[in-house]
Design brief:
heterodimer, A: 190 residues, mainly alpha, 7 helices, globular, B: 188 residues, 2 domains
C-alpha cells in the first residue's frame, strides 16, 4: 500500500466521511459506490483494490460495517486520531438529522409522497452497487474472477453469509502460505 | 443507575458483541428495549421506519433515535458514541499490529484471496437488492410471472446503472435522479 507523501488533514478525513454518511441510504454495502467516488476517485487516498481489502477487514471487526470501514480508512492514514475523526464524520449526519427531524419523521414517514420517493431510491442504489461490483470483479485476473463468481454464487444460494466467506478466505490464505513455505522447504532439502 | 449510564452500557455491549454488521444489531437493540421497558414493539417499528429513511448507516440511526427517545439529546449522543466506541478501540489495537504485518507473505496471500471474495460479496448484494426491488417473488404458486415485474424499478435501475457505467456520474446525482424518476413513474 502506498502512503501519501503529505499527511492527509484530519479535517479533510472528517468532511469526506461526513459527506458519505450524509448521502448514505441502506446497508453498509450501499456505502461502497460513495466511498469509491470520494476516497478512490476524488481524494485518491487508496485504490479500489485497497478499498475492498479494508471493507473485508471491516466485516470481521465487531460493530457497524460502514463505521468500521471509515475507522479503517481513517486509521490507515492518520492513526487513532484519523480513525476517531472518520467515525465521527460517519455518525454526524444521523445525529443532526435525527435530532432535528426525528419526532416529525414518525408521521412524515406515513406520507405516500415520501414512500414514492424512496421507491425509486432502492433500484437506484442497486444500479450504483452493481456498477461498483462489476468494476471490482472486472479488474481481476481470470482466477480472481472465478473466485468472485464462486463467492457470489455461495451468497446467492444462501450457503454462507459474508462473515463466513471472509473468515473462510482468511483461513484459505493462511493454508496457502503454509503450503508455500512447505514447498520451499522441500526444495531446500533436496 | 442513571438512564444515560444504562444507555451507554447497553449500546457499548451491542457494539462490542455484534460481528456481521448493523443488520445483525437490530434484533439485539429490539430485545434490549423491550426487556428494559423503554419501548413498546410498535414504538420500535416507528424507530426502524425513521432509521431507514434518514441518511446514514441504519444501526447508527436506530441507536441515535432510541437514545433520543429514552434520554433526549444527551441520550442520542451517548447511545451513538457508545455503539461506535468498541469498534474504535478494536481498530486502534489491531491497526498497529496490522500495519506491521500488512506486507508479510501470509498477509499478502490472505489479501489476494480476500479481494475477489469481497468483489463477489458486493456482486451478490447488488443482485439481491436488484431482485428485491425489481423482480417478483419467483418461487411460489405458478412460478415466475413476467407480469409481476416492477418495470418502474427496472427503468430506474437501468437508467442509474447505465449512466454510472458509461459516464461515471456522481453517485449522489445517480441517487437523486433515480429517486426523482422513480417518483414520477410511481405516480402513475
Amino acid at each position: 500500500m502506498t502512503t501519501p507523501e503529505q499527511p492527509v488533514p484530519l479535517s479533510r478525513i472528517y468532511r469526506s466521511f461526513a459527506w458519505v454518511g450524509a448521502v448514505l441510504f441502506g446497508g453498509g454495502y450501499a456505502m461502497l459506490p460513495l466511498l469509491e467516488r470520494e476516497v478512490v476517485e476524488r481524494r485518491r487516498w487508496c485504490t479500489l483494490a485497497e478499498m475492498s481489502e479494508l471493507y473485508a477487514l471491516a466485516q470481521v471487526i465487531p460493530g457497524v460495517i460502514a463505521v468500521n470501514t471509515a475507522l479503517l480508512v481513517g486509521h490507515r492514514y492518520r492513526g487513532a486520531a484519523g480513525a476517531a475523526v472518520a467515525a465521527l464524520g460517519m455518525v454526524s449526519a444521523p445525529i443532526v438529522v435525527i435530532l432535528a427531524v426525528a419526532s416529525a419523521f414518525v408521521w412524515v414517514s406515513e406520507w405516500p409522497l415520501l414512500a414514492r420517493l424512496f421507491a425509486g431510491l432502492r433500484p437506484a442504489v442497486a444500479g450504483l452497487l452493481l456498477v461498483t461490483a462489476l468494476r471490482m470483479v472486472g479488474r481481476g485476473k481470470h482466477w480472481e474472477r472465478g473466485v468472485a463468481a464462486g463467492a457470489c454464487l455461495v451468497m446467492l444460494v444462501g450457503a454462507s453469509g459474508p462473515l463466513g466467506l471472509i473468515l473462510g478466505a482468511i483461513v484459505a490464505g493462511l493454508l496457502w502460505q503454509a503450503w508455500a513455505v512447505a514447498q520451499t522447504r522441500n526444495v531446500g532439502t533436496r | 443507575m442513571s438512564v444515560l449510564f444504562q444507555l451507554m452500557a447497553v449500546f457499548f455491549k451491542i457494539g462490542l458483541f455484534t460481528i456481521g454488521g448493523g443488520l445483525a444489531m437490530l434484533p439485539l437493540i429490539r430485545s434490549e428495549m423491550l426487556a428494559l421497558g423503554w419501548m413498546s414493539e410498535t414504538e420500535f417499528l416507528d424507530v426502524l421506519a425513521v432509521a431507514e429513511m434518514t441518511p446514514g448507516p441504519m444501526a447508527v440511526n436506530t441507536a441515535t433515535f432510541v437514545g433520543f427517545r429514552v434520554g433526549g439529546v444527551a441520550g442520542a449522543l451517548v447511545a451513538t458514541l457508545a455503539l461506535v466506541l468498541p469498534s474504535l478501540l478494536v481498530v486502534c489495537l489491531l491497526g498497529a499490529v496490522w500495519r506491521r504485518h500488512r506486507n508479510a507473505p501470509a498477509s499478502v496471500r490472505v489479501l489476494a484471496l480476500l479481494r475477489p471474495v469481497v468483489a463477489g460479496l458486493v456482486l451478490a448484494a447488488a443482485l439481491g437488492l436488484f431482485a428485491a426491488c425489481v423482480l417478483p417473488v419467483m418461487i411460489g404458486e405458478g412460478g415466475f410471472d413476467a407480469r409481476t415485474i416492477d418495470w418502474r424499478g427496472l427503468v430506474v435501475f437501468a437508467l442509474v446503472g447505465g449512466a454510472t457505467w458509461r459516464y461515471r456520474v456522481n453517485p449522489l446525482l445517480g441517487m437523486a435522479g433515480g429517486a426523482l424518476v422513480g417518483f414520477v413513474l410511481y405516480s402513475f
